[in-house]
Design goal:
The complex is a heterodimer of chains A (about 375) and B (about 300).
Chain A: E1 4-11, E2 21-28, E3 33-37, H1 44-52, E4 59-64, E5 67-68, E6 79-82, H2 94-104, H3 109-123, H4 138-150, E7 156-160, H5 168-185, E8 188-193, H6 196-202, E9 205-210, E10 213-218, H7 220-225, H8 230-235, E11 242-249, E12 256-260, E13 263-266, H9 272-275, E14 282-287, E15 292-294, E16 304-316, E17 321-327, E18 330-336, E19 347-353, E20 357-361
Parallel strand pairs in A: 3-8, 3-9, 6-7, 7-8
Antiparallel strand pairs in A: 1-2, 1-4, 4-5, 9-10, 11-12, 11-14, 12-13, 14-20, 15-19, 16-17, 16-19, 17-18
Helix pairs in contact in A: 2-3, 2-4, 3-4
Chain B: H1 2-49, H2 53-58, H3 62-66, H4 74-81, H5 85-116, H6 122-131, H7 137-151, H8 170-194, H9 198-207, H10 211-222, H11 224-239, H12 243-248, H13 257-267, H14 272-294
Helix pairs in contact in B: 1-14, 4-14, 5-8, 5-11, 5-13, 6-8, 8-11, 11-14, 13-14
Classes of the chains: A alpha+beta (about 375), B mainly alpha (about 300).
């Protein structure tokens, strides 16, 4: 039985504007770490808040366990939430902050003490229990917010961009801690973020959203390797996928994806049947920077197609060189071996890994 | 060469410091002079309160500063021992404290509703309440007096005295003062409550708090600065109020200090030195309240609750 279920959920904030969340259907199983990811305004926070009961459903139902909680108040939904801005009670010390929810539910004082100390131990904040929030650093406040959620022992944890306010280093550290927390607690986590890196590293399943609609649901690797449309393809993966407007040229067994004069990639044997009907139709070809190599240092086991291109700008990353290349009107990014000779203004041969090519219909924007 | 450069730097730094210290002097002077000028009337009254009636009639108040022998405590003596002054002091307290408490209580509840609860016509009602700030108190006195005369409930309340309600009752004064103070109280508190971060309330709701619990356990503790400011303001306004008490009380036994001092003028003739002494005596309580509550203007009480 799924822990959480959204059924045909809609949320409209006003009648003339498009819905913030449209026909949202999702089943979330027990112990999952589900990440809702998407650009700002895509509806991911709204979807989370609908589950929390902080927003009212315009249409549809939400289930937690087997209870329909669509009309149940937030406090009775058996959930705990960690906010982006932590929302700690400033006039109470850390202990009271964590104990607040339990006190309201009339849990006996001894048990409250046990639970708070337990949570504090898990998060490493035992020494901070007597402090007030203003005497804590950002990372510490974060942990108190997490602790406040943990003591409630809810059925579902909701986290709304909890790492957004931390500096980069702390973010990476806390990411790992949250993953460990999930593993040790074994509760369902539903996590909202705009950062696809967080989504990829933390999730067991990712839900990509755009303009209130679910674009694709799947495991991180699945989304990376088989994006269902241009949006997901361009959103997942950093640096982002390269896109080219192409046309299918050639006949019979000899089909090419033609981007420009002198820039065409052959269609592999197994895809011929798929692409044949698309002759003379506008298509979009996508290929990740990881699948574009400096011709001189290409990996030996790939099926490569070589293209002459001019280097525009290079970024030395240490472990690799990001080379921004140009072929005619087309610009793309190549992740080159650090030994590459690519320098701005130079012409080098670039190897495109044919197996890394994704083709999308230019009109429907979906994958072929 | 290097030595010359260094000494030039030294000189630069010295002249900088000199300029900073002495450059400020004209500014300080102007500020002090302005403060003094504005305080002169008050100082004059203070000095006059320590002078004999004859001395006051004879020479300007500044003469007392040069001639310490003139200073006397007779005026204060007269005021303190005047008939009914202690009673008047207690009456002032009886009028002021409940008026302040009611305004805070009712104002806070109303402000919370206006800030964080949804109900129809919320904005319209709030605008009407704020618009009431414009109405001068004096305009309302006669209508209220006529209203009170109709609804007066005679009787004698134990301990504090006065009628049960209406003219010549403390409850009538409390209601009147509370009503006069509410528009400002609601306006001030609603803006303050509205500034509290929304996530704080959401978090509390998720934790299981009802609106009432949120109000008492979260909003009120965080609003101490605003409430302290409101308390001071209302206390001062009611404590030094003469007109409302004069019109709505009518009973000399219930008179607060302001009324009592006013009557002193007639009994002592036109000796205003008694007035000055009485005025400064009556200022002690408000000043005390002010300095006591000043400690509660804690800035940054919200620092640390929400990021940034």
């Amino acid at each position: 039985m799924p822990t959480v279920r959204y059924e045909h959920v809609y949320k409209r904030f006003s009648d003339d504007a498009p819905p913030a969340v449209a026909d949202f259907n999702l089943e979330i199983s027990d112990k999952e770490f589900l990440v809702l990811v998407g650009p700002s305004g895509c509806g991911k926070s709204t979807a989370l808040r609908l589950l929390a009961g902080l927003e009212e459903l315009t249409e549809g139902d939400v289930y937690i366990g087997d209870h329909n909680v669509s009309n149940v108040q937030s406090r009775d939904r058996d959930i705990a939430m960690v906010f982006q801005s932590y929302a700690l009670y400033p006039h109470m010390n850390v202990f009271d902050n964590m104990a607040f929810g339990l006190t309201l539910r009339k849990i006996p004082k001894d048990e409250i003490k046990v639970r708070v100390n337990e949570a504090a131990a898990i998060l490493g904040i035992e020494g901070l229990l007597k402090r007030k929030p203003r005497a804590l650093s950002g990372g510490q406040r974060q942990r108190v917010a997490l602790g406040r959620a943990i003591v409630r022992k809810p059925a579902v944890f909701l986290l709304d961009e909890p790492l957004s306010n931390l500096d980069a280093k702390l973010r990476v550290q806390t990411r790992a801690e949250i993953i460990k927390l999930h593993q040790s607690l074994g509760t369902t986590f539903i996590y909202v973020t705009h950062d696809q890196t967080e989504a990829m590293t933390m999730a067991t399943r990712i839900v990509v959203m755009d303009v209130g609609v679910i674009q694709q649901v799947g495991a991180p690797q699945e989304l990376y390797e088989h994006p269902r449309n241009i949006f997901v393809a361009g959103f997942i993966g950093s640096p982002a996928m390269n896109f080219f407007d192409v046309v299918v040229e050639g006949d019979g067994d000899d089909l090419r994806l033609q981007a420009a004069e002198g820039f065409a990639l052959p269609v592999p044997q197994e895809k011929l049947a798929q692409l044949a009907p698309y002759r003379a139709r506008k298509l979009v070809m996508g290929i990740r920077p990881e699948s574009v190599h400096d011709g001189a240092f290409q990996p030996p086991d790939i099926r490569a197609s070589l293209v002459e291109a001019t280097v525009d700008v290079t970024e030395m990353m240490g472990n690799e060189v990001l080379a921004y290349m140009e072929v005619g009107e087309h610009k793309f990014l190549c992740r080159c071996d650090p030994r590459t000779a690519a320098r701005p203004g130079q012409q080098i041969r670039v190897a495109f890994d044919i197996d890394g090519v994704h083709v999308f219909d230019a009109d429907t924007k979906t994958a072929i | 060469m290097a030595a010359q450069r260094i000494s030039a730097q030294h000189r630069g730094r010295l002249s900088d410091t000199l300029r900073k210290t002495f450059g400020r002097i004209p500014l300080h002077f102007v500020i002090l002079a302005t403060c003094l000028a504005w305080s002169i009337p008050t100082i004059a009254l203070l000095v006059s309160s320590f002078r004999d009636p004859s001395a006051i009639a004879g020479s300007g108040w500044w003469n007392a500063l040069l001639d310490p022998t003139q200073w006397t405590l007779t005026n204060y003596d007269n005021v303190l021992n005047a008939r009914g002054m202690t009673d008047a002091f207690i009456n002032s307290l009886i009028i002021t404290i409940p008026s302040t408490l009611f305004v805070i209580l009712i104002g806070a509840f109303a402000a919370y509703a206006f800030a964080w609860m949804k109900f129809p016509f919320r904005n319209v009602i709030f605008l009407i309440v704020v618009a009431l700030l414009v109405v001068p108190v004096q305009m309302t006195l006669i209508p209220i007096l006529r209203l009170y005369t109709i609804v007066t409930i005679e009787g004698s309340i134990p301990i504090i005295g006065g009628n049960v309600f209406g003219v010549g009752s403390y409850s009538g004064l409390w209601i009147a003062h509370t009503a006069y103070g509410l528009p400002f109280a609601i306006f001030l508190l609603r803006n303050f409550f509205g500034g509290l971060p929304r996530e704080l309330f959401e978090s509390a709701h998720l934790d299981g708090a009802s609106d009432l619990t949120v109000f008492f356990k979260i909003v009120l503790p965080l609003s101490v600065p605003a409430i302290a400011a409101l308390a001071i303001f209302q206390f001062l306004w009611v404590w030094q109020d003469l007109l409302v008490a004069l019109v709505l009380l009518g009973d000399p036994d219930l008179a607060p200090m302001t009324l009592q001092i006013n009557s002193l003028v007639s009994s002592f003739g036109s000796n205003y030195q008694v007035l000055t002494a009485a005025a400064f005596l009556s200022m002690i309580v408000p000043l005390g309240i002010f300095f006591a509550l000043q400690r509660y203007f804690v800035e940054g009480i919200l620092a640390g609750s929400v990021k940034g």
